[in-house]
From TrEMBL:
Residues 648-671 have a biased composition (Polar residues). It holds the Pfam family Peptidase_S9. It is found in: Membrane. The keyword Transmembrane helix applies. InterPro entries: 6-blade_b-propeller_TolB-like, AB_hydrolase_fold, MFS, MFS_dom, MFS_trans_sf, Peptidase_S9_cat. One of its GO terms (molecular function) is serine-type peptidase activity. This is Dipeptidyl-peptidase V. It comes from Fonsecaea monophora.
Amino acid sequence: MNLTTGETSLLYNGSDISEIVWVGQSDTSILYINGTNEEDNGGISLYAGDINAIDEAYLIASLPAPYSGLKAVVTPSGNINFLLSCLAWPNGTAYNEELAEEPLSSARIYTSIYVRHWDTWLTERRNAVFAGTLTGADRYSLGGSLKNLVTGLANVTRAESPVQPFGDSGDYDITPDGSTVAFLTKNIDLPLSNYTSSQIYLVPHNGSSLPVPINAFSGSSTPPNAKGASARPLFSPDGTKIAYFQMDGISYESDKNKIYIANVNTSNFNITSLAEDWDSTPDQLRWSADGTSLFVAAPDLGNERLFQVPLTAGPGFKPTNITNAGVVASFYVLPNGNLLVSDSKIWSSRDFYIIGPRGRLVTDLFRSNQVDPELAGLGPTDVSEFYTLGSFTRVQSWVIYPEGFNRSRKYPLAFIVHGGPQGGHYNSWSTRWNFKVWADQGYVVVAPNPTGSTGWGMALQDAIQGNWGSLPYEDLVAVWEHVNSTFDYIDTQNGIEAGASYGGYMTNWIQGHDLGRRFKALVTHDGMVNTVASYSTEELWFMQHDMNGTLWANRNEYDEWNPINHVDKWATPHFVVHNELDYRLPIAEGITLFNLLQERGVPSKFLSFPDENHWVLNRENSLVWHREIFAWINHYSGIKKVMPSDQKPPSAQAISPSSHDRTSPASSDTTIVDEEKNETAEETVRSRTDSESEEENQKALNAAWGKHGRTWMWIGELDYTTIYNYQNYAASDFGEIALLGALMTVGTIVAAVLKPPLAKISDVVGRAETYGAVIACYVVSYILCASARSFGQYIGGYIVYSVGQTGMQILNQIIVADITTSRWRGLANALVSLPFMIVPWCSAFIVDGALATIGWRWGIGMFAIIMPVCSLSVIVPLLGFQRRLERVRGGGAAKVRTKTTVRGFAAQIDLGGMLLLCGGCAMILLPVALAGNSNGSWRAPWVPTLIVLGVLCLVGLGVYESRFATKPAMPPRLFKNISVTLAFAIGFLDAFAYSVTHTYLYAWATVVHGLDPRDATFLTYTAGCVQVLTGLGTGFLMYRSRRYKWLLLIGVVVRLIGYGFMMRLRGADNSLAEIIAMQVVQGAGSGAVGTVVIVVAQVVVPRADLAHSTALELLCIYLGNSTGSAIAGTIYTSLFKGRLRFWLGPDTDPAAINSVYDSITAVVLPETGTAQRNAVNHAYSDILRFMTIAALVASAVPMVMVWFLPNLQLSDKHNLAGSPGGVDSGGPDRRRDTSDETRLQKWRRRIRW
């Protein structure tokens, strides 16, 4: 491959070349192994050549054994020192099976364990590292014989390198000058089968002295806890240091790999650790070109990414990832310091690219799905992810869609559980469990990463110990329930479940529990069914660690998580695969499982391969494996799809468009529903992957809003600011100023509770259509309000107005959220509010002029003409965008739709839940607002009756949403997320505090300070303008710092200080400057709080829940507003007349008191300074004091709440919880700080136990 152009060329066409290394006299010189040997059967040949003249390569030596793992360097003298590995006899000579003398007996005799390992019976032969030298100036030749560098090391066990069964050339290395070799071997002082401990040794390349351990237990600089498995020894470019991994746990194979550096030029090696507190376990390692840092690969949130770690990294250093989504298979540091990376993804078998040391893409060399026509069409839109709350933390799951995926159809669920259990489902290509192959049978695949999974921190991984059947099972149940309640296109009623290894164990465990009844069929591949029989395995440390001890010392643990103990509940059809060469989980487990299923009368089938181990690797066997399993699950799920007998083995061809029908039609008994009639602009944005550029997101935004769509934002803001002020004068004209609190309560209740159903309606009928309905509500409301002949009619018009207003707000909010990353979200939300900086000041002049000329009626009525005209700038582009999208998605074909019944539509928008919510809130808040102004006041029997009924409605809402609602608008799962719950609560309290103090602020400013309508408008909107400015600043700081908790804390503190100022500055003696300063402080605090809580509610949930969470956050804010207005109304109606009598005197004419009470325009008092004017001012100030006290209490509570809010790190991904609309884009910012989450996990555990 040309690293400049990415072009590939054929160097040699044959299967006999197995390994090539760049080494020799020039940059194009190579050394390679030929797997044939004409002199010795079973041996290899070593060749040297040049890639520019490969046909002229020459034979250096014929080696009489099957050596592999070639490593080579040029020495200062010009020779080549090289390393190879091979099985060796106890005497140190290399073993060649074809030349070995067959024993007369086939007996195997053992006095220690291992007896067998992975898929091989152990013999006296062990792997060894052999060293050799090539000499010659123009033509190399083998100088002397190969030297076994490992022989002679033995105690309890013999040394072996590479370590079987998965050891390779990464288990040893050679210095750049060729003088010294490092290799790792299992700890020779400990039994093989019980301990994972291994150590690294140094030895001269010429074998002139015995190997010396670097990290021996007794080493003076060996970290005291470093007793576990070592890995990946690698010399620095100058040969003075060696980097390696080592675990602490002496018998824990999945412990955290810590990074160590040893100085090979010192007697005690001076071992130091790097980034010791990093909550990850790296598994690949390379030095930087200058030797000042390391590049390591580590699992990270379902991917395997590269990180850079400097040699100066202290314990608290948190490495930054430098690669995007995918699993790094290998990488190499180029001479110029750049990195050549090879990775794969669920939808791409192999990609090659070059990046800079900090992750900047230098050259995109090769993308398999772009180069290979058999993979054409596969891409990131085939995959998505989501998070849901599991047993004690968030659990990630991949979602893989079938080809031709259509949201309006239902696809059976394929629920696949990974092995390990310390492992994971990663964003990588597989030729064994290829999710896309499963999906293209006609399933939506969901692949969860429950407790035990790697890549989400050690807390989640280590929690599997002692919890095999508890925490992971609870996680899987939570994922299934999330899928069942969230994804309309997934048919869980006809789903299947499958798993291998530990996933097979979990499948057997599921069979005996409630989740097993949720599936139509199960598949177990090489899974354990009897934990008590686990000592038939080879690596005994595994079960002894995970079960917290030996079988005899902790028998209860083995029994507690034993699937066989629940055999009486087995009932779901079950397919069993178990191979004869699987010595990790011997075939007796599979036969036992199958026998029990047959005896129980459960439909079952058994498949076994005598020549396969834990994995099925033979291509023809893989074909049978896929064909048999798919036939089984398709039968029970109802998919009518048959693999033809001549179909090729599942490989690249198995998922290509030409290989088989990729439209994945649903079966005759699979329901096809019309749950989403349109793919609208917002849904298009939602389906975009986060790997798309900001330019593409901006294009989507422009398409959704249209060329002149921002005009709608300005007109909408102007409408709101003027209507707010006109209603004071409308209420005064009707003599009902006391009902102003009730009016705003009704409006805010309507605006609050309609957000979730309006969001759902827009999903069902389309964004443009919903916008049209919103405009219709606006026009009707203007006509009703402008022509009102009573305050009751005005309230009716205002209710319709609130419907239109809330529809516009929720649609705007969702669109902005869908097209921005979590890091940009706060700033984007603030930018949408930017018109508020100008419009209120313009509206003040408009209101002032309208009241002086045409009156408040025409001031409202003119918007009946302005609003529909301006809204066309949004509706027309949205309609066009929707139509174009339908043509693109439908490939030009007409979109098939089915009729939706009224009942189905009601279920879609959760009509029952919305009625309970609206009714409950209204029956609680309206009596609170109206009681003080009614006959009998609070003693009236209708007041407590309505409140009790309202409480019952809200209790019923909880029951209905969790048990009966098929499409809940308030999904109970959201309230299990502590970040969401706290965001809801803080948003409610902040809105309450604002509303309770500002409902009568305009009236207070007009009466107490004598402000005219324009100046009163300026005052009341000062806080709002500062809020917008602070929101912009908060959004910018969130973008730069990638954090939000500290900004929220500052916001709640400043907000509290603002209400303290209001308590102090509520009188008539304070200057206008002081009052404005009070509003500035309040606006600053509210800007920070409001920006953060919206972002938190949006970024901690998956895309599928974004509309729900956004609507519910706004619901809480509006309920806070309505509650605040209700309390303000109660304070006004209950106390204001009494305070007027107190200050004006008991002999004051009741008509005068009622005049002040009922209307701000009826107040005609002597000039400022008279006793009467001061009395009215005191009465208003007293009322404001009571309201401010309520605000102070409400503002103090978030001070406590904010400490429990997880401080997740914002990224360049759409959200921090995954997104069904797009695969994780990765990027350098895809990381998080788990300190808060770890604390919360411990807190939850204490509560749990």
